Amino acid sequence: MLRYWTAGESHGRTLLALVDGFPAGLDIDYEQVNVELARRQGGYGRGGRQKLETDKLEVLTGIWQGKTLGSPLTLQVINADYKLERLKELERPRPGHADLVGAIKYLGSIRGVLERASARETAVRVAAGALARQLLRRFGIETIGYVTEIGGLAIETPVGSIDEQRRLRDSSSVYTLAPQRDGEFEKLIDEAADNGDTLGGVMEVRVEGLPIGLGTHTQWDRKLDGRLAQAVMAVQAIKGVEIGLGFEAARRPGSQVHDAIHYDASQKHLPSLGYTRPTNNAGGLEGGMTNGQPLVVRAAKKPISTLRKPLDSIRMDTKEPQRANYERSDVCAVSAASVIIEHVVAFEIAAALIDKFGGDSVVEIQDRYQLFLKRAAEH
């Protein structure tokens, strides 16, 4: 079973992730991981802290001569801005944050809660997902994450290969697939900043090259759509998750929702085994399992809770009404969130791949994968 845990607060010196169940024999491409960590820190609308941090991955355990050993991987990202621990305690909780409920739950300080609740922790989740993406590529599985909406301004997703879509996204200041419209989004973000406000948005992740049968229908907690939804919803500020049509499926009759099944013998050699669909409303998942079509996952991110013009709150000591505290913050972090969502999805797909095909090493998993495709094509 592939899984991971994270440790470290945003004010601490290091952020850590312990990854267990990663197979042996994968050459780690550190540069590729660091590119993703840098993208997580980018996007128009980010705050000043991103200029202080330059995230780089270090792997402390589980590798030998650049290859994974099959033993637990300890991933580390250094915090350049760890002097945050010297900041004073917050007296007034910020609406929308974990401040109030966390301080009450743990009978402690707001500062201790907010530093762990911070999205800074997602740096090592991106690192873990970037390693998972390198594993997936050995099986011809590719992922991409991008922004489809900010502050109510939405764009259509252009048709194209993942490579073509990456080129578009990487040339966009807000990580959409329509870089020609960056000016509209930047203007929207600037207006929110001038008003002391923040903006949320919607992100989409697409995964291609998936075989039929990752995940299972046999137990509720092992269904892949449920695992994906939990992983995505667990990212800070995510308030909704959709797969395929998502909520739109509830508004249509079944004849306009379900994807007809066809067969094309010329595609029998592909991971989809020749089974084709004229539509992909299911988003690549049926019955908790991949169906050979591209996986499409969408996430809604609320606006950042820290406002330069704070909302009403109270003092924790006196319970007297006051404005909430303000901590330096972003105006819009939807672009960064698209990077995080892509990588938590990649990690869950890699976990499902290992669950399905097993094996202690990458080579062994590849052998089992090819045997399954052969048997399934004959079924």
CATH topology: Chorismate synthase, AroC fold
> How many structurally independent domains?
1
Per DSSP E runs of 2 or more residues, the count of β-strands stands at 18
Please, how many helices? 10
Under the CATH scheme, which class? Alpha Beta
How do the SSEs run, as a string of H and E?
EEHHEEEEHHHEEHHEEHEEEEEEEEHH
The neighbouring-strand order within the major sheet is 8-7-9-16-11
Strand-residue fraction?
Answer: 15-25%
Distance between the termini: 27 Å
- Based on secondary structure, the structural category is alpha+beta
What does it look like?
The structure is a single chain. The protein is of the alpha+beta class and 379 residues long. The protein has one domain: 4-Layer Sandwich (Chorismate synthase, AroC fold). Helices cover 32% and strands 21% of the residues. It contains ten helices and 18 strands. The protein has a five-stranded antiparallel β-sheet. A four-stranded antiparallel β-sheet has the order 1-2-6-3. Strands 10-15-14 form a three-stranded antiparallel β-sheet. A hairpin with a 2-residue loop joins strand 14 and strand 15. Helix 3 packs across helix 4 and helix 8 runs antiparallel to helix 9. It is globular and about 70 Å long. The protein starts with a strand and ends with a helix. The model has no long low-confidence stretch (mean pLDDT 94).
